[in-house]
Design brief:
The protein is α/β, with parallel strands linked by helices. It contains nine helices and seven strands.
């Protein structure tokens, strides 16, 4: 699906940029404590929006961009080339499990990725794989859709989220695809439950620092030295 969407992905979601930009503004502040030569792991990097933001703000940083979609990763590579930071990037086409454990990274990003893992153990294992590739005390910024789908508030949030996407120019077929996916292909869990899964994977208790509609964002620090799954 992401291979098919790669070419027009950025244009399709351009209207949602204010939400993304607010998240990145917080990301830049959270990561500002990292060293001038930090190494950052971008998991499920897609077309590279957060990588581009960080590369522009922190010109001495290097990045490992991971994505299973070759088409998405190629768009990320093009963005890096156009932005003049290609030489600071290492691109890994595949899942996180196939990325070597060394070298470990100072920080990591993972935006709207873990929500596609429906099994709770698999989702925890995913965050364990990130923790094992971070230095002790390494920083993680992550975001996913989250809500208690059994509560009345979920229907309100979902309706408003769909209205927001529609007003942002998301095409009707994409809206319908999203609504269908939320029902069966996306693990929308209550925010405290998502935080608990992350903590169980080897991180200090995540701090929720962001919410825009259904999207929630957390910052946290790895608790242990890198370890294999």
């Amino acid at each position: 699906m992401f291979d098919q969407q790669a070419k027009g992905y950025d244009q399709q979601w351009a209207g949602m940029a204010p939400i993304r930009d607010a998240l990145y503004m917080l990301l830049g502040s959270f990561f500002s404590e990292l060293p001038d030569d930090a190494s950052i792991l971008c998991v499920g990097v897609g077309t590279g929006a957060e990588l581009s933001f960080l590369a522009d703000r922190f010109p001495g940083w290097r990045f490992t961009a991971v994505d299973p979609s070759g088409a998405m990763l190629e768009r990320c590579r093009e963005r890096a080339s156009q932005g003049g930071f290609l030489s600071r990037c290492n691109f890994h086409e595949g899942y996180l499990e196939t990325l070597p454990l060394q070298p470990v990274h100072d920080g990591g990003t993972c935006f709207l990725v873990s929500q596609f893992l429906l099994d709770h153990q698999a989702r925890t294992a995913f965050f364990e794989a990130i923790a094992s590739r971070l230095k002790p005390g390494g920083l993680l910024a992550t975001a996913d859709l989250a809500s208690d789908v059994t509560s009345p508030s979920y229907e309100v949030l979902l309706r408003n989220w769909m209205t927001l996407m529609s007003s942002a120019g998301v095409e009707p077929q994409m809206l319908e695809r999203a609504r269908t996916a939320y029902a069966k292909d996306v693990a929308i869990l209550p925010a405290p439950q998502v935080a608990a899964l992350i903590e169980a994977a080897g991180f200090e208790p995540p701090v929720q620092s962001f919410q825009a509609g259904l999207m929630h964002g957390w910052f946290c620090r790895s608790r242990n030295a890198g370890r294999s799954r």
